[in-house]
Design a protein that fits this description.
With 94 residues, this protein is an alpha+beta fold. It is built from 2 helices and 4 strands. Strand 1, helix 1 (12-25) and strand 2 form a beta-alpha-beta unit.
């Protein structure tokens, strides 16, 4: 399970290694709560870098399938204290 981590990994190498660690530690399911869109580095806060991580997952972990994506109930565009992060459930052999 990865909650609110991926968009704080601003360095490319750290991001790639984190995904390797996450998916190699799992047997059947991986749950990620994160944003899933690209933004240029430093286009937001210095400790935040939004990435379309699902593209990296598809390329690097082809045995894993996106089983479900649960959109934010309170997207930032509509709620002052909302979030654009969503849940992404991946499965392998399920």
């Amino acid at each position: 399970m990865s909650l609110d981590v991926i968009f704080h990994l601003v360095e490319d190498a750290v991001f790639v290694q984190y995904l390797r660690n996450l998916f190699s530690a799992a047997e059947r399911l991986v749950l990620i709560y994160s944003t899933n869109q690209d933004s240029r580095p430093m286009s937001t806060l210095p400790h935040v870098r939004h990435r379309q991580f699902s593209r990296q997952v598809a390329e690097s972990f082809p045995a894993w399938t996106l089983l479900e994506q649960v959109p934010s109930r309170y997207p930032l565009a509509h709620y002052k204290d909302g979030s654009d992060a969503e849940f992404f459930l991946y499965g392998r052999g399920v």
